[in-house]
UniProtKB/TrEMBL annotation:
Entry's transmembrane regions: 6-27, 39-59, 71-92
Keywords, comma-separated and alphabetical: Membrane, Transmembrane, Transmembrane helix
InterPro entries: DUF7521 (IPR055943)
Pfam families per the UniProt record, alphabetical: DUF7521 (PF24365)
Record-given protein name: Uncharacterized protein
Length: 100
């Protein structure tokens, strides 16, 4: 470990990973069931955000990556994930306008 992190941070990260995993799972399940491209993008976006958080924590705590580099990586992956989530919502809004 590269340093001590407060237990509350570990608890928050754990809950974030569990909730992000659940959102990703349910969005992917709904996308498969409905064959919805929008829900598939939503699942990919949340999966990206969640996996980025996990990978940054692993890189920091287990691989000894500098904490600032791990934080920058996590924020970059979060940004990409949220861009995909935003795109999924944009595609959904456009397809609902076309369907009218």
């Amino acid at each position: 470990m590269t340093g001590e992190i407060p237990l509350v941070v570990v608890a928050f990260k754990t809950v974030t990973l569990v909730l992000g995993g659940l959102i990703t799972y349910f969005a992917a399940k709904a996308a498969l069931k409905s064959r919805s491209r929008e829900l598939a993008y939503l699942a990919i976006g949340f999966g990206t955000v969640t996996s980025g958080s996990l990978l940054a924590g692993v890189a920091d705590q287990l691989l000894g990556l500098d904490a600032r580099a791990a934080l920058a990586f996590e924020n970059a992956v979060t940004m990409v994930g949220f861009a995909v989530v935003a795109y999924s919502l944009y595609v959904a809004s456009q397809s609902s306008l076309v369907g009218r």
